[in-house]
Backbone:
């Protein structure tokens, strides 16, 4: 931003996160926007998102999972900061696992695999998940919603 003498390191771009419950088709677009914004300038600007926006108007019991999975996807493409619930310990675990590349538990491996696949412009694959584990199965279903492969419904986690 040489035209106005504003240091790029001080710029924070906050692309709009739209809710999966009404604007599901835009969830994958934000992933690509975060990826692209980092290559639009040199040096790259900081990128922040309001993470919980993706789960607005979703039943409260489903919101943390949607936020965690989207967090892993966005971290995979280089998200540096977010507005998120600091009291969600499972979310904080996901952030730590991805930041440190910790794969010491099955869930840590799954979230790192999601971030890795998205970083490589790939989609998570069913074989990345232990579908006999209900938690991993729910994570898989959530990736499909966030990638706009399956239409979102409030009951998407029910068998």
Residues:
């Amino acid at each position: 931003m040489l035209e106005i003498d504003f240091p790029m390191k001080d710029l924070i771009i906050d692309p709009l996160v739209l809710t999966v419950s009404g604007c599901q088709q835009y969830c994958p677009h934000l992933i690509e926007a975060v990826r692209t914004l980092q290559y639009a300038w040199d040096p790259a600007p900081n990128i922040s998102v309001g993470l919980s926006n993706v789960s607005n108007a979703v039943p409260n019991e489903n919101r943390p999972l949607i936020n965690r999975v989207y967090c892993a996807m966005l971290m995979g493409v280089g998200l540096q900061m977010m507005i998120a619930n600091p009291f969600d310990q499972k979310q904080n675990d996901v952030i730590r696992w991805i930041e440190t590349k910790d794969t010491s538990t099955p869930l840590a491996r799954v979230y790192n695999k999601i971030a890795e696949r998205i970083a490589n412009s790939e989609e998570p694959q069913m074989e990345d998940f232990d579908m006999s584990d209900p938690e991993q199965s729910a994570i898989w279903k959530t990736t499909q919603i966030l990638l706009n492969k399956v239409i979102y419904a409030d009951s998407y986690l029910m068998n």
